[in-house]
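Ex. 9. Protein: Peptidase S24.
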Amino acid sequence: MTADPITDHRFQRLREARLAKGFDTAAAAADAFGWNRNTYASNENGNAVFSYRRAKEYAGAFGVRPEWLYDAAGPMLPATAAGFVPIVGRVGANPDGVVLFATGQEAGDLAPIPPGGTDKAAALRVVGHSMRGVADDGALIYFEDQRTPPTPDMLGHVVVVEVDTDEVLVKRLLRGSRGGVFDLESVAGPTRHDAHLRWAAHITAIIPPYQARRIIRGAG
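Predicted structure tokens for Peptidase S24:
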């Protein structure tokens, strides 16, 4: 059977991304992002080919483009201009508060880094009216894309989270029924109880729709 050079070198790109992020070992990266050590090591040494869904997770953690990591398409790093950060998805199109990635906005859309933000910042664009009272249709929601576990100071606040079902959500973070799990309260819609979180991030800025339209830099 003819070897697939893209698949064969996928694990090498994963190792390159991990080293570029500053992690000397696969175990150190797995521990930092809450991944199973054996699973990650198998993905990086080529014993187990990882999916595009997993590539998106790894790419987000290491700050590279998932298309490059998965099939060597395009440059390794996102094309961002100085002082700008990517608009990575849209949120609020339904009451569940699910973030839809790479949907509804042109690839490469950028927004200025918010006051106090860093080069780890990312933005979400609000679509629809299910987040009324937090952010209106067309607003920008900024967060620091650090991929770190939730902290006590996030409790009671609307934050960006990823749950173990691969969904990224914008929810109010509340204590769950026991340690290690959290309730996620929607702006509109039911509360999700006892969710397991992979990471959580404070919202650092919300830009109203009128101003958001003025500051977004389109892909073209």
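Check your answer against this statement. DSSP finds six helices and ten strands in the chain.
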